[in-house]
Amino acid sequence: QEIVSRESEEESSGVNLMEFSDEILLHILSYVPCTDLVLNVRRTCRKLATLCLDKSLTHTVLLQKDYKVNKDKVKQLMRDIGKEIYQLNMAGCYWLPSSTIDHVTRCKNLVKLNLSGCHVTSLRLSKMLSTLQHLRSLAIDVNPGFDASQLSSECKATLSRVSELKQTLYTPSYGVVPCCTSLEKLLLYFEILDRSREGFMLSGQLMVGESNVPHYQNLRIFYARLAPGYVNQEVVRLYLAVLSDRTPENLHAFLISAPGSFAETGATKNLLDSMARNVRLDALQLPKAWINGSGLLQHLKFKNPFYFSFSRCTLSGGHLIQRVINGGKDLKSLTSLNLSGCVHCLAPESLFRKAEDDIDSSILESLVVSCCNLRHLNLSAAHHHSSESIGNHLCQLLSRLKHLLSLALPVCSITDVAANVEKPPVASNLVPQTLGRKVRIGIQTYPRNLADQANQKIESSVFWALMGSLRFLETLEIIGSSFSSAMPRNEPAIRNSLPPCVRAQSVGDSEVAAISQLTYLQSLTLAQLPNILTGSGLINIGLQCQHLRTLSLANLGMMGKMVYMSALMDMLKHCRCLRDLRLEQPYFCAGAQFFQALSHCSSLQRLCIVSRSGTLQSDAVMSFMANCLEVIMCHMFMGESLTVCKNLQQSIVRSFQADRPALNVVIFPLLHEDLTEVIRDVPMRHLDEITLFKSRVAEEPPNLWW
């Protein structure tokens, strides 16, 4: 009735969208996907026909998450506005056939082009680039079969003018790097597997005819991210060999992200020594073996640093203060800091210290004062235990960072020191206790609104105060310091998990409820919170955090029982903007009630469930897919048999693939020996963004690529 009354009022007042100014209409239209603007909206009336072709709307075309776009729409789009497009982003459009790329040749004025995740052969790349004479920024994949000798002279001429290149390697190759003689920014993603599909060991040596030397003389930014595997390490050393001979004078960002052990060699040592002598950096990330035990940081010079990552390094807090933040000087420019897995970074020294010992609050205070403009901070994967000193709790010190947009913390760092953290929750605590009212055993009860929760929560806790002070936080990760996902990258699924930290035993529903103060929260990750009894705090988040788009929950409460299912279902009914949901919990039952609640998430696009010994109901999954028309990714790794999984996967693909071109379905037993082979076929966009669990705060420098 209220809606009808409002509509009648609008009609009587004569409000008409077309009466708004062009500026307001253009702003509204900027939220509409370009394919809809050009192919649909502009056909409604003459005014919109003109506005939809305004340069502000056609200058940059973003198709990277337009999951409804298909080959025909791209073809028509390029015909209609191809000459008006200067920036085109098709990253992750894995569902489009390679022939779609042929239509990009109509965009004669392209300056920036992103084709990461698209199927592009060397011949098609050559034909396309030959026509794009104004191109200055390019992102592509280099797949097995790529042959640089097939690139035409016109293509190489275009590449010689490219100053920004992002290259994802799935095979040992230089790709197009040797052709790019004017490179200023080089981003390399190494995703080469150690074994072929047939089981043969691969070599990191480049293919015959690929011995051309890259040109780094104008390089300003060098970034390399390696997936696990020795072949990736071998290939990146070939790229670094040229840098070690002559370090570019204008180099100001040098970043290498390498998991595990990546040993330093004579060539890399020469490179680092040359950098220490000749350049002043603004961004730095190095493998832990290159920093641990060396005096490198003492010699490197920094200009106006905006990004540091010392992930998994044994860097002590004393060295951090003395060698990196220079006693608190000139660090106002730092906006992003990654200390994930840096277990001693808040202690004065690491020689005789245990990882579980209390932090030195003076080090954290120096860090907060010196880096007061931090927007992204990652302190996860370590035990950061605060002492009993009043006013020196980690949460109290972090509350001074008013500009924070993303934050990652270990679970044990947010507990109140005054709480009895030495004793884990006893069995009697599993039954909610009330005064003057009987409670049925086995029936979970929890508060239904913030008022009831406030009565049970001591809102003077340090974590509650921290959440209240970071009102503009958009991304929050609270991850157990000993948590490891059961979902592998290149290894079999993990069958056993480590117990949570003793200090984390008291963290549960009330701390989760505190998160509901973050009105602008868009992404939330909670992993290994052992004292979740009912999940009541999740309901508060669903009610208050209406901008939430990404939710990842893993190993909450008791491992042998899904204690928060009822609260989760209530929460999901309020998550209208949720697009990505990842759940990792043993013994999870993906049944009709769960999927019925999930169907309220009308914006949901991607779902991933990882559950050892988990079960699913095929009919419920099919009904959910039929009701949620936006879902294009369904990954479920459960305890069901291979036959059940395959039949359900085939049914989903057969029923919905025609209407959802980007549909990607993987349903497979979690502990099956062939899981790694299945994982390698998952599109990198989904694998990197949701399927694999990892901390993403300050993972890369902000705005590394558009």
From TrEMBL:
InterPro entries registered for this protein in UniProt: F-box-like_dom_sf, F-box_dom, FBXL18_F-box, FBXL18_LRR, LRR_dom_sf
One GO-annotated biological process of the protein: SCF-dependent proteasomal ubiquitin-dependent protein catabolic process
Domain F-box: start-end pairs: 14-61
Gene Ontology cellular-component annotations: SCF ubiquitin ligase complex
Descriptive protein name: F-box/LRR-repeat protein 18
Native organism: Balearica regulorum gibbericeps
